[in-house]
Design a protein that fits this description.
This protein is α/β, with parallel strands linked by helices and about 350 residues long. Helix content is about 35%, strand content about 15%. The longest helix has 17 residues. Bound molecules: pyridoxal-5'-phosphate. The site of pyridoxal-5'-phosphate (PLP) has 19 residues, from helix 2 and helix 6.
Length: about 350
């Protein structure tokens, strides 16, 4: 275990908006979500820290956590880390079901927070294994937030993430690009932005069932269902991205911003110096594969003539790349953090 850093829930939300120096118009910003619980080890938090908090808050308010000792959740890693941190901090035992080949850094982050990890054989098995574990428990022995069905997931993105993006761009945002896992982010952010203005939501999904864009979920075709937290009608344009494109674009972004001082449009609840300190790891701007996929979807849309020069595009930067150093192909290209 690393030396315990106090969990400060007040750092969740109001994350920074950072301008990305890409080669041409439109103007592009990244909503940088690892500033949620940024002081925690293993790359801080992620976009899922928001739903970890909102699902636990909603459960507490509804009395679901009264006298319940254990919280159980299936997760590709980021929600699991958030629930382990926040649940542990609030006094619960936490058990997380992970898919096969999880990033070792995410396993360590969950265990570091005191969570217990079970690895399942497949992504779908992970959800079933967790459901069986919950069903076997006596009624009041555990609580399963279930990020795939919990309305507190899209709700926090509608109430907070989407509102923040609108305010941080002074209402200038014209497009939002994000990946679909539970679909909570694109659904909630999309609803907030559609309510406020003429904003187009681009949601991307992995191209194949077997993929390495951690956090995303393949759900096309008759064998798969979209989770209850995803409202496909909110997405104006859908794109598919391969794992190799996601990783390639994450590496390209790192190279592109290597020697550039990043322009912080709005530091959110932080000061600019804190943002600058935490944006880079060992001098590098390292994003996770799902953010690489967002860039891939953005460029594909741009190549199709989907943006005007004066558009303002916000890209979801869900987590930082140093959570993925256990992937060999990732580590090969991630310099000194490998
Ligand atoms: C790194 C990362 N990116 C994107 C997503 C997708 O977000 P959502 O579940 O809100 O669709 C997740 C979800 O776990 C994630 O961990």
């Amino acid at each position: 275990m690393s030396e315990a850093v106090p969990v400060d829930e007040s750092t969740i939300g109001e994350t920074p908006l950072v301008k990305l120096p890409l080669d041409a118009p439109p103007t592009v910003y990244a909503k940088v979500e690892w500033f949620n619980l940024y002081e925690q080890p293993y790359g801080g938090g992620s976009v899922k820290t928001r739903i970890g908090k909102s699902m636990l808050d909603a459960a507490a308010d509804a009395g679901h956590l009264d006298d319940v000792p254990t919280i159980i959740e299936p997760s590709s890693g980021n929600t699991g880390t958030a629930i382990a941190r926040l649940g542990g901090h609030r006094g619960y035992d936490v058990e997380i079901y992970l898919p096969p080949r999880p990033s070792e850094a995410k396993v360590l982050a969950i265990e570091d927070a005191g969570g217990e990890v079970t690895r399942s054989r497949t992504y779908e098995r992970m959800i079933e294994d967790c459901a069986e574990r919950v069903a076997e428990a006596t009624d009041d022995a555990c609580y399963n937030p279930n990020q795939y069905e919990n309305p507190a997931n899209p709700a926090v993105h509608e109430r907070e993430t989407g509102r923040e993006i609108w305010e941080q761009t002074d209402g200038e945002v014209t497009h939002f690009v994000g990946g679909v896992g539970t679909g909570g982010t694109v659904t909630g952010v999309g609803r907030a932005l559609h309510d406020r203005g003429d904003v187009s939501v681009i949601g991307y999904e992995p191209a194949r069932p077997s993929h390495t864009i951690s956090g995303l979920r393949y759900a096309r075709g008759p064998a798969f269902d979209y989770p209850g937290t995803f409202d496909p009608s909110v997405v104006d344009r859908r794109r598919v991205v391969t794992s190799s494109a996601a990783r390639r674009w994450a590496r390209r972004l790192r190279q592109r911003v290597a020697d550039v001082s990043l322009d912080i449009r709005d530091p959110g609840q932080h000061d600019a110096a804190t943002v600058r300190n935490h944006l880079r790891v060992d001098d590098q701007f390292l994003v996770g594969p799902s953010t690489g996929g967002v860039l891939a979807a953005f460029y594909e849309h741009a190549m199709d003539g989907g943006f005007a020069d004066d558009d303002v595009v916000v890209l979801m930067a869900a987590d930082r790349g140093d959570r993925y150093t256990s992937f060999p192909d990732w580590a090969d290209h991630s310099g000194s953090t490998a």
